[in-house]
Amino acid sequence: MTKDLTEHLLDLIPTNISDRGKITLDARLAPIRDILNRQRFPATPLTDWQIEQLLNLFSSMDSDKDPDAARMGEREGRVASPLVSQLAGGFNHGIGRSGRILAPQPKAAGASLMQKLTNNIVLDAIKQLGLHNVRAAMILPLGTGMSIALTLSMLRREYNIQNVLYPRIDHTSPKRGIDLVGVTMVSVATELKGDGVQVDMNDFEKKLGDTKSSCVLGTSTFFAPRESDPIKPMAKMCLEHDVPFIVNNAYGIQSESVMASISSAIDAGRVDAVIQSTDKNFLTPVGGSIVVSPNESTINEIAESYAGRATAAPIVQTLSSLLAIGYERYIELRKIQLENRRMLESLLADEAERLNQRVLDIDNPVSCALTLDGFDVREIGARLYQHRVTGPRAVQKNSYGSCIEGYPHDYLVMNAAIGSQKKDITIAVDRLISELKKI
Predict the structure, then answer these.
(1) Nearest-5° Cα angle at 59, 55 to 62
(2) Which of 26, 149, 362, 380 fits 177 for a cystine, CB–CB 3.0-4.6 Å?
(3) Are residues 29 and 118 in the same domain?
């Protein structure tokens, strides 16, 4: 990578000085070489300079960077200004070909290499972070709801799926994904176990046996009081009934326990695809998702369902985040997330005692819920928003959001997700206490 440069330097300055310069340059480029050679999630992070050099290397290979090219097509990577190109990471041609999102693109050698490298690195990352038994992965420039739709469209084409068994989650995106594909959602009932809302497995088993041409969409992570679906038992039943099983693992990568449950489900039963968000797990801007599967053919079939080329931006952002974090730092972020979750619950419990309320006893890796019975919980949510506390979820008794009919409490959900800081939690709880005192 530096051979030609150093050879020229030998003619310009003394050899001992040029050799010293080469040592420095080689040291800075060594992590980039390692990424290109091994295509693995690095143990330690790369610097911003190193990540920029890697992206510049790839983007410089695309045909729109060729100073002598005669660009005659209708789509030639033309942009209005250097800023526009910069916002795309320099990958103005995007990724994929018409109807083949994973196909190399003749005008975008660099983007094609970058996409392949990123998919290899994210697969290795997810294996290291808990799903050792997946065999293929791809990043899609779509949110999780749209990626669920794309996966369902593949199942409809390949398996003639007409119905989706969906244990109740009060969340619009997956439902819109199901509607988009034109299959029928068969809602599976939930039940109250203590404070937690869980899948009614008797209803699930009955509908799994009664519903023809079906698949199952399970959920591993959602807001309290909803608890994770029992992924392993569901996977076993899907294997027994020969029914495809998709797991919406929206923010589950950050949870070691959630990843362990999905890995166990893959070993014990049938799991066709696991879908997770890039922004919720790897601290990227919104816009991407990661689909993994224990079967490489499944990923290829989902990829064949994508219509047209795609923007490279979410792939560039995910690659950059993976390289900027590294495995060791991600494990540290996981540890901090657990500490923050415990701290959030402790602070809310202290306030609950003062108010004669309580923190709901929920098995949830990210969120806590404080009962606010007798309060106008929506007003409290609005007050927090006006006081610059983002993220809380205010739900009234027996209303949409609890994932069950007749939930017996008004409550406020607060999250301690990966990347949040202790000061965020303490400030948010302090402002909540302030608003409750006013009321």
Answers:
(1) 160
(2) 149
(3) no
